[in-house]
Specification:
Blueprint: E1 22-31, H1 34-41, E2 58-65, E3 77-80, H2 90-93, E4 117-121, E5 126-127, H3 132-135, H4 149-158, E6 165-169, H5 175-184, E7 188-193, H6 196-205, E8 209-212, H7 218-231, E9 240-243, H8 248-256, E10 263-266, H9 279-283, E11 287-290, H10 299-307, E12 317-320, H11 325-333, E13 340-343
This protein binds zinc ion (ZN) (2 copies).
Residues 85-89, 91-92, 100, 102 line the site of one zinc ion.
């Protein structure tokens, strides 16, 4: 990305030797995220000024290690968390790793994964267990870095428990994993979207019921979701609502669904602003939360869920050659992709 908003260009960059604590990774796959689109199309600034290689959803094999890195990482298949904390600061020590102010986000703080190789700090890399590679190829697991782990952390933080109602709004690239994680956590899951195809996919992923929001006004939506919740045997209170569309309409819907004791988790990202009555949080004794990426310490659990067959990424990713990246960005920008695009 050169910062002008123009298409991505292919460049040959010098090979960088990993410094102390860093490793060189041969990229197996790098997923395309909404955040990449906002960098390219919506003028959201990357923390390192362009020209910059985007891409923060990376899996690959470690091919060189810098000083002080555990030698066991050499030649190991890894998933690279989208947010790499320093591990030393006050926030990290307080367990708030995902907001570490010295964090490194590939494709934002420095060159990312839409490349043949990437050099990054290795401290929180997550080695991929052998049993996961029996059902998945390494490139597919790139989406664990963000698309799967971000809703995983949101759901974990919301305290979603067996039998509770999870309302998943926007069940595309990220939302479909949110649905899977919520269902695997034992919740009753309602998927909301404006695309029948995405809703069908959400059903396959474990949603117990779905609702197409197209043409419905907010009152209809509230009424219908209440009816569906009742049918699923969930009460009208303490819903866990996950906004994963990253759209203004999705956020408005999510907020309008707040009721007594509800939790609203903002997982999707948009620059658009919404007008809300913030006092509803107080009136409903409700909670609104957000999470910047995921806690790297959640990744081993997540990979274990995949290894044990509780979660799968394979049906929801599609492989593209890195040379097609501009077409894939354009398709993603115009909502033409059903599955998460992984550049290989
Ligand atoms: Zn992302
Ligand atoms: Zn830190």
């Amino acid at each position: 990305m050169d910062g002008s908003g123009a298409a991505l260009v292919r460049r040959t960059l010098p090979v960088v030797e990993p410094k102390a604590g860093e490793v060189l990774v041969e990229v197996a796959g790098c997923g395309l995220c909404h955040t990449d689109l906002s960098f390219l199309y919506q003028g959201v600034r990357t923390r390192q000024a362009p020209p910059l290689v985007l891409g923060h959803e990376i899996s690959g094999v470690v091919t060189a290690i810098g000083a002080g890195v555990d030698a066991a990482l050499f030649n190991t298949p890894v998933v690279i968390p989208a947010v790499l904390p320093c591990g030393e600061c006050d926030l990290c020590r307080a367990g708030r790793r995902s907001i570490c102010r010295s964090q490194v986000m590939p494709g934002n703080d420095r060159h990312g994964g839409f490349a043949s190789h990437v050099v990054l700090p290795a401290r929180y890399f997550c080695p991929v267990p052998a049993e996961v590679l029996r059902t998945h190829e390494l490139w597919e697991l790139s989406v664990v870095a963000d698309a799967v782990s971000t809703p995983f952390t949101a759901i974990k933080r919301s305290g979603l428990a067996t039998g509770e109602l999870a309302v998943c709004i926007g069940v595309g690239g990220i939302g479909v994993y949110g649905v899977q994680v919520a269902a695997a956590a034992g919740a009753r899951v309602i998927a909301l979207d404006i695309s029948d195809t995405k809703l069908e996919q959400a059903s396959t992923a474990g949603a117990h019921t779905t609702l197409n929001l197209k043409g419905l006004d907010i009152k209809d939506v509230r009424k219908q979701v209440r009816g569906l919740a009742e049918k699923l045997g969930a009460g009208p209170h303490c819903w866990k609502i996950f906004e994963m569309s990253g759209t203004k309409a999705g956020q408005e819907t999510a907020y309008a669904l707040l009721g007594f004791g509800a939790t609203l988790a903002v997982v999707g990202f948009t620059m658009d602003k919404v007008e809300i009555c913030l006092s509803n949080l107080m009136a409903y004794d409700a909670v609104a939360q957000g999470n910047w990426g995921a806690d790297p310490l959640d990744y081993p659990d997540l990979l274990q869920w995949i290894g044990a067959g509780r979660l799968t990424v394979r049906p929801y990713v599609e492989r593209h050659a890195l040379s097609e990246i501009n077409q894939v960005f354009d398709d993603a920008h115009h909502g033409r992709l059903l599955k998460r695009a992984v550049m290989v």
